[in-house]
Amino acid sequence: MKKKIDHIGIAVRDLDNSISIYENVLGGILIDRYQSDAVGVESEIAIMEVNGDRIELLSPTNNSTSPIARFIKQKGKGVHHIAYQVENLDEAIKELEVNGIRILEGSLRKNKHGRRLIYLNPADTEGTIIEYCDYPDETL
Q1: Using one digit for the tens of pLDDT, what is the confidence trace for 83-139?
Q2: How does the average pLDDT of the chain come out, rounded?
Q3: Torsion over CA: 102, 57, 80, 67 (sign)
Q4: Where do the domains of the chain lie?
Q5: Single pTM value for the model
Q6: What would the CATH number be for the domain defined by 3-134?
Q7: 3-state SS of the chain?
């Protein structure tokens, strides 16, 4: 199945400062900024575009339940995940199962931009958090 990098998610402590760095140092453009209080997300997210590439800056909104807060506490701020766009998420999940790669339970969801996504279990990916996503209304 065809895959391509969709975006890189970066865990940050200070979202405003991070946006400023991406705008003023890297020439990025703020595409969207929103807060997700969904269980297992609990983050404020800034979507930046830098020369056609997407970066998601992720800042925890709940330090006791946010996976981003947990990530920062364990590993520090920095690259949290790499997202790959797939042609069809349902087919990609079947392909993962055939290859013995588990997905994180409860991670299947659709975000406000119409992106369906899941996270692969980092225990099966040498510790890297990988997101698979598709845009059902678009083609790859």
Answers
A1: 999 999 999 999 999 999 999 988 899 988 889 999 999 999 999 999 999 998 765
A2: 94
A3: negative
A4: 3-134
A5: 0.90
A6: 3.10.180.10
A7: CCEEEEEEEEECCCHHHHHHHHHHCCCCEEEEEEEECCCCCCEEEEEEEECCEEEEEEEECCCCCCHHHHHHHHHCCEEEEEEEEECCHHHHHHHHHHCCCCECCCCCEECCCCCEEEEECHHHCCCCCEEEEECCCCCC
